[in-house]
Amino acid sequence: MHFVIAFILAIALMAADHYGQLMGSFRSLLLTTINPIERIASLPKQLYLFTTTDFTNIDTLKLENQQLKTELLLTKAKQQQFSNLQLEVSRLESLLGTAGQINTQSLQIATVTYYSNNPLSQYLTLDKGQLKNVAEQQTVIDSKGIMGQIISTTPTSSRTLLITDPDHQIPVRIQRTGQRGILSGTGHDTTELSFIPKNSLVEVGDLLESSGLGGVFPAGYPVAVITQIENKGGNPYLDITATPVADLSRSHKVLILSQATPYLNFDENLTEPSDVE
C-alpha cells in the first residue's frame, strides 16, 4: 500500500514538473550543489588523463626531435657530398675543357695519390700505371698547364717528376717573342729560365710554353710565367725566375698525355666511372 501511494505521488510530481515547472527551482538548486562534488569526483580521472597525455606528448616530441636530428645529419652529409660533387664536376669540366684543345695526343685522367714537396725531390704519385698503358716520359698536365713527366711506373701507379724538381729541365719558348730557352726546377716551387741573352726582349709577365724540342714534351702547352728578371755583372745571360702556371700542390685530377695519331683520341679510361669519381 505504501509503495502504491509513493508511486502515485512520484507520477504526480513528474507530471507537475513537466507541465507546470513546479520543481525547476529545486532542481536548479540541487544541480548547483552537486556540480562541485562531481568536479571533485572527476579530478583523479582528469589528472590521470593529463599525466598520460603529457608523457605521451613528451615521448612523441622526443621521437620527432630525434628523427629531425637524424634527417638533419643526413641532409648535411648529402650536402657535403653535393659540394664535393660540384667541385669534382668543376675540376673535370676544366680538365675536359683542356682536353678539347688537344689534337695530337691521346689522354687519360688520373688521380693524385701523393705529393712530395721536398726541395731535393718534388714529385706526384698517380693511380695509373702499366696496366693502363702509362709509360715513362709521358707528359702530365692539369687544367692550367704542364706539371711534369712520368719517370717510373708500376702496374697500378706511376711517379711524375714535377717541373720544379732540381733535376727537371724542359725546353720552352717565350710565347710573345718565340725566343727559346731551358726551364729548370729550383726545388722551391719556382723555376729558372736559362740561356736568354741580355739583349733579349723579355718582360715580367711573359708566358713560357713548351717548345716541343727534344720530342718529350708536346709543343704549345703553358708552363710558367716570368716573375723576376735580373741582370748580373759579366754574365752574358739574364737570371730569370718563373712561377709554374699549373697547380702543382693542389690539383687532384690530372691528364696523362701520349703521342698519338693527329686527331683527338680519348682513351677509353676517360669514360670509366672509376676515373671520374
Automatic annotation (TrEMBL):
The Gene Ontology biological process annotation of the record reads: regulation of cell shape
User: Start and end of every Rod shape-determining protein MreC beta-barrel core domain?
Assistant: 112-257
Give the residue range of the signal peptide: none
Its GO CC terms are: plasma membrane
Key words, A-Z: Cell shape
Which family does the entry's similarity section mention? Belongs to the MreC family.
> Which protein are we looking at?
Cell shape-determining protein MreC
